[in-house]
Amino acid sequence: MISHLLDVHHMDIEADNEDFRDYFHASWDAGTPLNSAVYYRNLPAFLLLLKRGADPEMAVYQTIDNVFTQAWLPAVGPLLDAGADPNDALEHAVDNLNFEAAKICLDKGADPTRVLQKQQLKANKKDSGSFHRVQDRVAGDGGFSSDDDEETAARRKEMREFVRFAGADWNSSDAGQVDCGRTD
């Protein structure tokens, strides 16, 4: 059916349709056919849409996890292979404390040093009181939140250490230059 719609009716593969947004507060670009396939875990539609050239960039965030959707890890690798930015995906995985997604992103070439630097920048802005997620147009808050419970704070610390370790393996000459900040 998807091929018929694309080939015969010239459906726009990137059409952003309100009807495809089935969850509350979906972002403006979450109504594409690929995002819908991810949301419904429809593997055949997902693979066909990727094969036909659907933009993987926004769908990768849904596969990693967010406040409205659960992770669908089998889709992360194919989306990264199709051109989604592994560094942005790794940053999203770090912000959402998704270790398995982080491992996939690292395996697909994400640079942990770059992500550590971005996390540190967000943490510094938050410490200075100048951080505003919407105005700064960034995802996550650098992995630090004053309202974290003990378990979440421990998981954030574990994630920072995991990425630090990956960064040391990634580029040992820069490992001592990057400090994600807090050890709390």
Short summary of the structure?
This protein folds into two domains: 84 residues, no CATH class; 100 residues, no CATH class. The chain is 52% helix and 0% strand. It contains ten helices and no strands.
Task: Characterise the protein shown here.
- By secondary structure, this protein is an all-alpha fold.
- It has 2 domains: 1-84, no CATH class; 85-184, no CATH class.
- Helices cover 52% and strands 0% of the residues.
- It is built from 10 helices and no strands.
- It has helices spanning 2-7, 33-39, 43-51, 59-64, 76-81, 86-95, 99-107, 112-128, 133-136, 150-170.
- α6 crosses α8 (112-128).
- The chain is elongated and about 55 Å long.
In DSSP terms (H or I, runs of 4 or more residues), the helix count works out at 10
User: Using DSSP, what is the number of strands?
Assistant: 0
Strand content: under 5%
- Please estimate the helix content: 40-55%
How many separate domains make up the residues? 2
Along the chain, the helix and strand elements come as: HHHHHHHHHH
Overall 3D geometry?
elongated
Quickly give the structural class.
mainly alpha
Give the averaged pLDDT, no decimals.
77
Chart the SSEs and their pairings.
Layout lengths: L1 H6 L25 H7 L3 H9 L7 H6 L11 H6 L4 H10 L3 H9 L4 H17 L4 H4 L13 H21 L14
Helix pairs in contact: 2-3, 6-7, 6-8, 8-10
Features:
disordered C terminus, single chain, 2 domains, 10 helices, 184 residues, elongated, mainly alpha
